[in-house]
From TrEMBL:
Name of the featured protein: Transposase
Any Pfam family the entry gives: DUF4096
Species this protein is from: Streptomyces toyocaensis
Annotated stretches, region: Disordered: 72-101
InterPro entries referenced in this protein's UniProt entry, alphabetically: IS402-like_dom, Transposase_6_like
Length: 129
């Protein structure tokens, strides 16, 4: 599932065009939507950032540009209420709660493995932006 989601993000392909090796195409976007709604990706980002910060790989200096950019007149009046929740289709709310801690841990492992592989392939130490 993770590789299927990453493949789509990396290539920009439609969900229906995912290679069969990632499993049923409908399962991958559904899992991505559910993990996004449960905050799994945010937890992953926080853990990877914490690990990179502990290793001294993140420079937290920031620059703020004070330029003012005017919005187009059609930019006004955007919807402010959140979109409606998708239907549960008979699934229990707590059905996948027990997979969350394992999943976040595994996602962190995958990201760290990819970073190590990329650093090894390029011949330079891993770095974060």
């Amino acid at each position: 599932m993770i590789n299927g989601i990453l493949h789509r993000v990396r290539t920009g392909a439609q969900w229906r065009d995912l290679p069969e090796r990632f499993g049923p195409w409908k399962t991958v976007p559904e899992r991505h939507r559910r993990w996004s709604g449960e905050g799994i990706w945010q937890q992953l980002l926080q853990q990877v950032q914490a690990a990179a910060d502990a290793a001294g790989e993140i420079d937290w200096d920031m620059s703020v540009d004070s330029t003012i950019v005017r919005a187009h007149q059609h930019a006004a009046g955007a919807r402010t209420d959140p979109p409606p929740e998708p239907s549960a289709r008979g699934a229990d709310e707590g059905e996948h709660q027990d997979e969350t801690p394992w999943l976040v841990g595994r996602l962190v492992e995958v990201v760290l493995e990819v970073r190590a592989w990329a650093a090894h392939a390029s011949g330079s130490p891993a770095s974060s932006t």
